[in-house]
Amino acid sequence: MNTDTARQVRALRETVARLHGELTRYALVAWTAGNVSARVPGQDLMVIKPSGVDYDALTADTMVVCDLHGTVVDGDAAPSSDTAAHAYVYRAMPEVGGVVHTHSSYATAWAARGEAIPCWLTAQADEFGGEIPVGPFALIGGDDIGKGIVSTLSGHRSPAVLMRNHGVFTIGRDARAAVKAAVMCEDVARTAHLARALGQPLPMAQADISSLHDRYQNVYGQRSTGGSPGVPRRS
Amino acid sequence: MNTDTARQVRALRETVARLHGELTRYALVAWTAGNVSARVPGQDLMVIKPSGVDYDALTADTMVVCDLHGTVVDGDAAPSSDTAAHAYVYRAMPEVGGVVHTHSSYATAWAARGEAIPCWLTAQADEFGGEIPVGPFALIGGDDIGKGIVSTLSGHRSPAVLMRNHGVFTIGRDARAAVKAAVMCEDVARTAHLARALGQPLPMAQADISSLHDRYQNVYGQRSTGGSPGVPRRS
Amino acid sequence: MNTDTARQVRALRETVARLHGELTRYALVAWTAGNVSARVPGQDLMVIKPSGVDYDALTADTMVVCDLHGTVVDGDAAPSSDTAAHAYVYRAMPEVGGVVHTHSSYATAWAARGEAIPCWLTAQADEFGGEIPVGPFALIGGDDIGKGIVSTLSGHRSPAVLMRNHGVFTIGRDARAAVKAAVMCEDVARTAHLARALGQPLPMAQADISSLHDRYQNVYGQRSTGGSPGVPRRS
Amino acid sequence: MNTDTARQVRALRETVARLHGELTRYALVAWTAGNVSARVPGQDLMVIKPSGVDYDALTADTMVVCDLHGTVVDGDAAPSSDTAAHAYVYRAMPEVGGVVHTHSSYATAWAARGEAIPCWLTAQADEFGGEIPVGPFALIGGDDIGKGIVSTLSGHRSPAVLMRNHGVFTIGRDARAAVKAAVMCEDVARTAHLARALGQPLPMAQADISSLHDRYQNVYGQRSTGGSPGVPRRS
């Protein structure tokens, strides 16, 4: 690792450790069940949470650096048990710079029924560009979860996938964008749940959904922070 | 800007920044999706949240001052993407001194179904004087949202409107009153949701609703803080 | 006020101010909508929250001392708009030393349907001795709310009443016991709501409920803190 | 008590006091209704919460040391009113080093209906190895609760039991593992509740559930912290 890469890794260790605080702030995770990773730009490396460590105990130093096959390159701890899925996404989707995994309650409830979240809210149109899709059931331990994420999100506007009977994976151009997608996924999953619990929510026109998504990805936020919070689309 | 106006603007920058803390305290907002603004009394100016900035990072200095057409007059950041809606309300409703926008979950669930919240609670009678009405579906980017808010709330007792498939806008004689209406809107939306989830809530007599509303607007609170927390009625 | 009474009042001002922190800790209240009071033992006096003041701003000094008809005896602020109801309870129920009022969401949802909470939980048997009853609809401003509380709770084991379309009032031998009843009322209201939302909860035998209530009122807790947390029964 | 035992007891007093902070962090408990205990390894002793004491006031010094029949050996306060149930579990299940009791809302709602929580989530397969079972209704005060816990959990993969109309008891090889099981029990109970509220969750294959459970109990976490978070299985 040269000096520039070492400096980048150091900064990402801090960013990734700190971003886990957003998962607890929004109550997306219980105990140690959720994780954030970031790709080291221009390197076949990622920074990820150690496995089974309390969120309170996470620091830059306890983060783990792996290659994109999940082999530890730097760090004393074993990496997250979801490392293989993160690594697969980085290998298959070069535009992705951050990956997040949670079992947030409302989103995971939709995943347990195997139901995509229909787009009934402008906030969902903004961030997800339509429904939030369901991915296949897949066992942990190999590439199956990673393949399910990539096959579901490739060519899809949504940066979030509901993995069946499991939970949420989100992607972003960096770790912060992926964390934002995880926060917004639970937020719209909750509101959609509550809306449908008492009746039938009103549909939105597809043209309105697309118009909202286009505007949000290109206009929202401060110019200096780069505009679009999601993953640049490839089409 | 003369000295008096500058002093007023300074105070409102601090008030508006601080009031966003009530949105996070009551979990009315996720990530950066919600905003507060205040009219500068006697001026065609408003103070509003910058776009896409974390709530933790909001300070008096990061607030943005705009004229009532949304043009930035003072501030380094782009104003909230909802600035046009706030500005339209201030232009059309001179008695309004504060506007708040959230996607709070329970209230937005009613909005997704396009259902007004019936008045089943004395707390709703106090603050809203009856049902909380639904406004039209409107796209962001022009005056449509502002028009929908104003046409729904004009002549209505409620300081809150549920914009269809979108979220909540509230008004008040000042920013604090509008924030209070946003907090109470989610509170009664949640209780009404829970009540109807297990059966049919009991209706309240219209005369009782009116009696409660009159009393609350005129008697409640400390005399020194001005009595009525809502917008002075125009009839 | 002699020196002993002044000392008692001073201590109760601190206790009552501090106990409001339990209402916010358990999210039983929104904005300023909930209040705690304590009787000054042996005096026709009570200490109560000022009207419309933020929970963060409550201190011993801002509490208000009233006689048992709600007339202010000591304090700069107007007392809670629910003062008449608290005062009526103290006049009618000499064994009561504390009163609490909230609009906590789940309990108030039962109140909006006018349904008592059936006893499906050992925790409810412990604290409430059976169902939590519903009181009548009553307008604020006179003795109607107080009369509704007293007529419902007199001779009833429950220290909590669900006032129709309104919210919760609880009583206790002191303010802390009344606050505990308010916390437990929302807790069992939520669990009972969730239980019934997906089916029919299992009934408990009346003899088991009575046995649990007797044990809890007489055995639970540290001997030095006086045993029973509720109101001493009169039969 | 010899010096080594005294040192062990001292450490467990601190651990048990601190672990109660996880019950409040995850909102598993209201007021004082929930408790943690730990077996003193190799001794017929346990460390447990005092009865009816606020979670804020818990310190190492206020914990109570009892023998495995619930008789106080060291401590100024009366032990938890659930001490007999904890003691029975330690006597009957020598592999158990920690016991936790809560009335957490979603899990207790399943208990109120007397329904086991079906396994619809990989997180539940990981921690519980299948459904979370229901134990019998039992009155406090003797060995009935303890017997119900032991008869339900003996030979079962789940470290959690839903005691009918009552709440949750969890076991673990130490107090931390039992607390984790209590946290995860409420988490999966909530997600399962939400999933079933809007339809029928998708079943998981028994082979997949077993595969996930085996992997999680043997692979997850850091090797240095001992691997499996649950109770070592006896078959």
UniProtKB/TrEMBL annotation, chains A, B, C, D:
Its EC number is 5.1.3.4. Keywords: Metal-binding, Zinc. It comes from the Bacteria. Residues 14-193 form the Class II aldolase/adducin N-terminal domain. It is an enzyme of class 5 (isomerase). The keyword Zinc applies. One of its GO terms (biological process) is pentose catabolic process. PANTHER family: FUCULOSE PHOSPHATE ALDOLASE, L-RIBULOSE-5-PHOSPHATE 4-EPIMERASE SGBE. This is L-ribulose-5-phosphate 4-epimerase. It comes from Micromonospora echinofusca.
